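Researcher: Sequence recovery benchmark, item below. Answer with residues only.
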């Protein structure tokens, strides 16, 4: 029998992933480590850009009314969830990247994009260089202070790691509250994310593909 699966990503993604875990027949433990908070931002002139690059659906949710100024720009989106959110907001999708921002930016450049606007999170590593004419943070991922009982509730579970920041934060909390790392398993969306969690875990598995479905499948393969 597989371990319970701890879902650490912020809402609303947390609830969506928990639902997928339950559909797969496993017990989901919701423990968001971060909260998505919209930021005030000044939208530049849409005429200065030839494409919009979105690295998270959170940018669409947090962008506010100002986002509508860019409806006419083709969107390059990292991940199907980001693309769905953008389409629902009225954008036309030029391409969907299944890997990371760098791969998507390279694809946009191949398509002839020369002045793209990137909208993302404060913690996103995308900077204005190359075809990225401007990179603006429209949301922040703020740390949630968690009580001892909340963290101890996931002891012995398999934790889903969607980002390196979540991996690092989980390691901090587990160590702070004196939980033995060997009691837990990790399912990471990439080797880089797994590395961010550090050593000493009972089991570490890597998703076959960098998406939610593959991450859950990897987690289900972890034993007791």
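Model:
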């Amino acid at each position: 029998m597989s371990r319970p699966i701890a879902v650490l990503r912020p809402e609303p993604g947390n609830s969506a992933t928990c639902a997928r875990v339950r559909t797969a027949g496993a017990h989901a433990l919701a423990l968001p480590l971060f909260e998505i908070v919209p930021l005030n931002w000044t939208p530049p002139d849409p005429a200065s850009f030839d494409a919009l690059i979105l690295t998270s659906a959170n940018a669409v949710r947090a962008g506010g009314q100002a986002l509508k100024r860019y409806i006419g720009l083709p969107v390059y989106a990292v991940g199907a969830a980001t693309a769905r959110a953008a389409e629902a907001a009225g954008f036309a999708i030029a391409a969907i990247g299944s890997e990371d921002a760098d791969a998507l930016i390279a694809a946009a450049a191949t398509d002839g994009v020369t002045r793209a606007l990137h909208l993302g999170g404060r913690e996103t590593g995308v900077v204005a260089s190359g075809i990225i004419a401007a990179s603006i943070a429209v949301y922040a991922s703020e740390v949630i202070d968690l009580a001892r009982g909340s963290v101890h509730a996931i002891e012995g579970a398999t934790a889903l790691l969607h980002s390196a920041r979540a991996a690092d934060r989980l390691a901090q909390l587990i160590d702070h509250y004196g939980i033995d790392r060997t009691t837990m398993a990790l399912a990471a969306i990439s080797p880089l994310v797994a590395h961010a969690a550090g050593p000493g875990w009972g089991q570490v598995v890597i998703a076959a593909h960098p998406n939610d479905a593959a991450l859950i499948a990897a987690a289900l393969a972890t034993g007791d």
